[in-house]
Design a protein that fits this description.
294 residues, 14 strands, 6-stranded mixed sheet, Rossmann fold, elongated, 4-stranded antiparallel sheet, alpha/beta, binds adenosine-5'-triphosphate
Length: 294
């Protein structure tokens, strides 16, 4: 079952491009990554899904229901963490969270306490006195307190220290195990790689790739690092499938995509000291997509 269905969604801001003809689906139970550089259209997509802005054309469904016709009903089952959180600074954290909880027809007080404990958030403090990271934690608790079926996170980790990021990810994994579907927007690839099953890559408002993280990593490039006994002649490894070739004396490195035997034969034909074949991280693969598309 699809929790999110985006169908040829376009949003323009006057003359400015937001997103263009975007289509993809997110299945129930997925942790779905939504990656792209600044200005790619991630927030525009999310804000459209939440009914905060209206699409110029196209449509989208959440839980099988049209986002415009059934907006308020859908939103009760969504937990949303915006990229930037703004609050009435004078309020205490617990009062703000109580107020947020009042929008749902359930008692969220126990869950608020649990979440605050996990995220190490002091409920008795005034919002005004909180650091940026702690304000972010308030947003996290606010987004999760009602046990939403769909969690939408827009660049959620900015401002959180590594320990808190880890705790936050564990929390998301627990929510996912309990059945929540997660849409996780980010420009930080390592966190998407760590958390998500599938990913949509957007660039300049358009979808350029939709892939399982495992496929994205496996079916593509391998990073070769080679140490030779004597310096190799310049361009020795320049062959079809080799990218980002760096030759520095006895050290050669490149990304390779293609028939592995061909590159192995090339390596075997010279005296080598050492060789490393690694999975490139998503960052490297991602940069490559972008270069290719430019
Ligand atoms: N209110 C607005 N008015 C005009 N243009 C806008 C508005 N909001 C977004 N845009 C434009 O739409 C495009 C997509 O922006 P969006 O904020 O959706 O990208 P993003 O991928 O979320 O990037 P970021 O990570 O920087 O938030 C950009 O070119 C941006 O300048």
């Amino acid at each position: 079952m699809n929790v999110i269905e985006i169908d040829h969604l376009t949003k323009t801001y006057g003359q400015a491009r937001g997103i263009t003809d975007l289509s993809f689906t997110v299945e129930k139970g997925e942790i779905f990554g939504f990656i792209g550089p600044n200005g790619a259209g991630k927030s525009t997509t999310i804000r459209t899904l939440l009914g905060l802005i209206h699409p110029t054309s196209g449509s989208a469904k959440i839980f099988g229901k049209d986002i415009i016709q059934h907006g308020p009903e859908i939103k009760r089952e969504i937990g949303y963490l915006p990229s930037e959180v703004f609050y009435y600074d004078n309020m205490k954290v617990k009062d703000l969270l109580k107020y947020s909880a009042s929008f749902y027809n359930k008692d969220c007080s126990k869950r608020i306490k649990e979440l605050a404990e996990v995220m190490d958030l002091d409920l008795s403090k005034k919002i005004d006195d909180l650091s940026l990271g702690n304000k972010k934690k308030v947003g996290i608790v606010q987004g999760l307190l009602h046990g939403p079926k769909l969690i939408i996170l827009d660049e959620p980790t900015s401002g959180l220290d590594p320990l808190m990021q880890q705790k936050f990810f564990e929390l998301l994994e627990q929510e996912n195990k309990k059945g929540a579907t997660i849409l996780f927007s980010s420009h930080i690839l390592s966190e998407v790689q760590r958390l998500c099953n599938r990913v949509a890559i957007v660039k300049e408002g358009k979808l350029i790739q939709l892939e399982k993280i495992s496929t994205l990593k496996e079916s593509n490039y391998k990073r070769f690092k080679i140490e030779t006994k004597t310096p190799v002649s310049a361009g020795y490894f320049r062959m079809v499938g080799v990218n980002e070739l760096k030759e520095e004396g006895q050290h050669v490195s490149f990304l390779y995509k293609g028939n592995i035997n061909e590159v192995m034969r090339k390596i075997a034909a010279i005296e080598i000291q050492n060789v490393w074949v690694e999975e490139p991280d998503l960052e490297e693969i991602f940069m490559h997509y972008y270069e290719k598309e430019d």
